[in-house]
């Protein structure tokens, strides 16, 4: 049975941050809203990782709660040596996906597909090597491109490229990304560009409003569709499929939210933008865990209303 919060929003999407460490140090990273203070704290650090048995327990109760999709995130989830084992736990009736920076994906894509992973989101904010290094702190763009190609070859589709628009860094790269996506779609590969407006957690100066860019794409699109989730529009533009993700000051985004998050230290997080209403899992299993999930659901409220 699907759980509903007090705003009549169903909880059908579970997003589990399985670790907080990463092999990049992106200048803007919000770490799934977990609020680490140091921008350089990701790379090379052994940080929080939720217990495998806690992930297993969440997956076991998910069907009883009407969960339809489960996304693994981090940090960088592919750093966990037991990640494929986690994927194998997800029942076929639940769509299983991952958000990754793609650096380790080329070696794992086919094994992940065999384990039951449905699709991937790959974070990539520049196709220019120098720009990529400036944004992420590491010269690994070639690994990411290889990861994208491997994901397409393994049919982890649709592969979505998460492109965060960053003021002063990559605003001039949109045409390059459109061409990158269009070229692969012309070969029959299901690749989608997601242009994401940066969530400005720490008053960082890179935030860029995507409104004007979306209006420009909309004017030139030969087809416009609308996704059910968040009422998000999709544009077919010059051979590419493009979505815009606008969570900032977006009442529609909040009103349509069906997601419950789990932090890398094992806490249920009702809202990405709040950290004052977390519910620790504390090793709960079965019915006890369901009660904790219901408690967290009761705390859910639109951040923008």
What does this structure look like?
The protein has 305 residues and is an alpha/beta fold. It has one domain (3-298): TIM Barrel (Alpha-Beta Barrel), CATH 3.20.20.70. Helices cover 30% and strands 21% of the residues. The chain has nine helices and 14 strands. The chain has helices spanning 52-61, 83-89, 105-115, 129-136, 141-153, 174-186, 211-220, 251-255, 286-298; strands spanning 3-4, 10-11, 13-17, 69-73, 95-100, 119-123, 159-165, 191-197, 223-226, 233-237, 240-245, 259-262, 267-269, 279-280. Strands 9-10-11-8-7-6-5-4-3-12-13-14 form a twelve-stranded mixed sheet. Strand 3 (13-17), helix 1 (52-61) and strand 4 form a beta-alpha-beta unit. Helix 1 crosses helix 9 and helix 3 (105-115) runs parallel beside helix 5 (141-153). The radius of gyration is 19 Å and the shape is globular. It starts with a strand and ends in a 7-residue tail after the last helix. 40% of the residues are buried.
Topology at a glance:
Layout: E1 3-4, E2 10-11, E3 13-17, H1 52-61, E4 69-73, H2 83-89, E5 95-100, H3 105-115, E6 119-123, H4 129-136, H5 141-153, E7 159-165, H6 174-186, E8 191-197, H7 211-220, E9 223-226, E10 233-237, E11 240-245, H8 251-255, E12 259-262, E13 267-269, E14 279-280, H9 286-298
Helix pairs in contact: 1-9, 3-5
Parts with pLDDT < 50 across at least 5 consecutive residues: 36-41
Name of the CATH architecture: Alpha-Beta Barrel
Domain module count: 1
Shape: globular
Strand order of the largest sheet: 9-10-11-8-7-6-5-4-3-12-13-14
**What share of the residues lie within helices?**
25-40%
Through-space gap between termini: 27 Å
By CATH, the topology is TIM Barrel
Strand count, sense and barrel status of the largest sheet are: 12 strands, mixed
Number of strands: 14
Mean pLDDT: 92
The fourth-level CATH homologous superfamily is Aldolase class I
Structural class by secondary-structure content: alpha/beta
CATH class: Alpha Beta
Strand-and-helix sequence, N→C?
A: EEEHEHEHEHHEHEHEEEHEEEH
Helical segment tally?
9
Radius of gyration: 19 Å
- Percent of sequence in beta strands: 15-25%
Q: Kindly report the oligomeric state of this protein.
A: single chain
């Amino acid at each position: 049975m699907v759980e509903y919060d007090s705003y009549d929003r169903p909880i059908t999407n579970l997003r589990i941050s399985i670790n907080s460490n990463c092999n990049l140090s992106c200048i803007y990273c919000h770490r799934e809203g977990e609020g680490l203070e140091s921008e350089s704290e990701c790379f090379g650090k052994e940080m929080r990782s939720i217990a495998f048995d806690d992930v297993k327990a969440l997956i076991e109760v998910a069907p009883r709660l009407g969960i339809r999709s489960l996304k693994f995130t981090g940090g960088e989830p592919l750093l966990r040596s037991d990640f494929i084992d986690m994927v194998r736990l997800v029942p076929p009736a639940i769509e299983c996906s991952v958000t990754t920076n793609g650096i380790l994906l080329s070696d794992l894509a086919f094994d992940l597909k065999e384990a039951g992973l449905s699709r991937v989101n790959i974070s990539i904010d520049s196709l220019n090597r120098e720009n990529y290094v400036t944004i992420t702190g590491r010269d690994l763009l070639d690994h990411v491109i290889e990861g994208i190609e491997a994901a397409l070859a393994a049919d982890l589709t649709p592969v979505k490229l998460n492109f965060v628009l960053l003021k002063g860094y990559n605003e001039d790269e949109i045409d390059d990304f459109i061409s990158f996506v269009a070229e692969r779609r012309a070969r029959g590969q299901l690749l989608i560009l997601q242009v994401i407006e940066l969530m400005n957690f720490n008053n960082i100066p890179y935030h860029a409003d995507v409104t004007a860019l979306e209006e420009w794409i909309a004017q030139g699109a030969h087809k416009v569709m609308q996704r059910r989730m968040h009422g998000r529009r999709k544009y077919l533009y010059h051979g590419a499929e493009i979505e815009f993700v606008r969570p900032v000051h977006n009442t529609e985004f909040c009103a349509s939210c069906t997601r419950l998050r789990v932090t890398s230290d094992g806490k249920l997080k009702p809202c990405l933008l709040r950290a004052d209403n977390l519910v620790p899992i504390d090793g709960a299993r079965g019915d006890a865990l369901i009660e904790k999930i219901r408690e967290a659901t009761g705390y859910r409220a639109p951040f923008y209303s």
